[in-house]
Design brief:
Blueprint lengths: L3 H21 L3 H9 L5 H21 L4 H22 L8 H21 L10 H19 L6 H7 L4 H25 L6 H25 L5 H22 L3
Length: about 250
């Protein structure tokens, strides 16, 4: 049974993570994993993340205009994401916990630097056939190790120069596949010590995540997204540095 303090912390984390996702269209797993990993093993944090991430990403996926077209275009990437995530999920458990926390920190630092510097690239259509499955596998391996879905999937999807709504829907597709594959991977390696209890707490975390996402969406047009984006990436940079150096002797 979790203590009242831990439950309160979980609610605050998912309220904040949902708010970030509501404002910028992504970031729930990144914020949640980064903050939860400060107080619990990454595998436990990832288990809490499953239902809030799956529900909010399906919501994001189904509200876009081009579901069938994006599935046809990105299916090899999604297959790579699933394969890499399921294969690498074991690194979140057992003796690999310290490595997973440090790797999570590195992933957050890289993501924050890319965001702050606005670094990007354009992928020519002729290269998508071989690059999409490669990006998918690498993203899956990073997800399997850290529970974070953003590197290198988000920069790659941005490089395809999709329309705004198509990009948001493509992110929802990638994050949905990542979440489902992570659940399968954690189940495969026995990370759910008490599956019923862990999924119940994940369901509890869904409520503050949905509240935060609704508030974030309402605030999106009332604030400077650019200012918020800079603060968001700066916070991720600080958090990533903390996690990456925490295990250094």
């Amino acid at each position: 049974m979790l203590s009242a303090g831990v439950i309160a912390w979980i609610c605050v984390v998912f309220l904040l993570a949902g708010f970030v996702k509501g404002v910028v269209g992504m970031g729930l797993p990144t914020v949640a994993m980064g903050l939860l990993a400060m107080t619990m093993p990454p595998a436990q944090a990832a288990a809490l993340l499953l239902i809030p991430s799956l529900v909010t990403n399906i919501w994001q996926l189904l509200t876009g205009p081009s579901f069938a077209g994006l599935c046809k275009r990105l299916w090899t990437m999604m297959a790579g994401v699933a394969l890499g995530t399921i294969s690498g999920a074991g690194l979140l458990t057992g003796t690999h916990t310290a490595l997973a926390s440090a790797t999570l920190g590195v992933a957050l630092v890289l993501y924050a630097i890319l965001g702050l510097l606005k670094l990007g690239f354009t992928t020519p259509a002729r290269h998508e056939a071989w690059l999409s499955p490669l990006i998918g596998i690498v993203t899956g391996l990073v997800t399997g190790v850290t529970g974070v879905f953003v590197i290198p999937a988000v920069p790659y999807l941005q490089s395809l120069r999709l329309e705004k709504e198509d990009l948001i829907q493509a992110l929802g597709l990638s994050f949905t596949v990542s979440t489902a594959a992570l659940a399968i991977g954690l189940l495969r390696v026995g990370a759910f010590v008490s599956p019923t209890a862990q999924l119940a707490w994940s369901l509890v975390a869904l409520a503050p995540a949905l509240v935060g996402m609704s508030v974030g969406q309402a605030q999106r047009n009332r604030m400077s997204v650019e200012t918020f984006r800079k603060a968001f990436f700066a916070g991720l940079l600080a958090l990533g540095c903390y996690l990456a150096t925490e295990m250094v002797p």
